[in-house]
Amino acid sequence: MGMRKMIFGALLLAPLLATGAYAQTPLRNVPAEGFKYLPSKDVEALTDKPGPGAKTAFPVDHENYYVEYAQRSDKGNEPEVHSDWTHYIHVLSGEATLTYGGTVTNARESSPGQIRGDGITGGSSMTVKPGDFVQIPAGMPHLFSVAAGGKFRYLVFNGRR
Fold this sequence. Notes:
The protein is α+β, with helices and mostly antiparallel strands. Helix content is 18%, strand content 42%. The protein is built from two helices and 13 strands.
């Protein structure tokens, strides 16, 4: 009789104890964002700013994902490596040479989990243009280079790996 009660009790407790193993605790316990709308003129204004280099804006920023609009010119671009984020990129306008893979030269940590540098050695290159989609996995060096006088705009969905 005592053994039966122990087995029965163990069977009742097993699902309760296993629940913690199946549940994932979010990092900051931030709920998903609600409905959001930006008219095209506001989206354009997010990155349409003077000067060289990358212009970025983050209309959605959550602990496990974020959305980034980016515009690059022909100056001020650096290779990047993100240890925790995969990029899902849709090219909106302009053209750029994407160099990916290889090794970042003169690498330095620009912020936690992000490496920047002077260039990429041993990578592959391709031209990307409007309508193209590129997935850059976390940990892969990448660099967009834009022709002189050009502008390159793209949308990035970033997911935590």
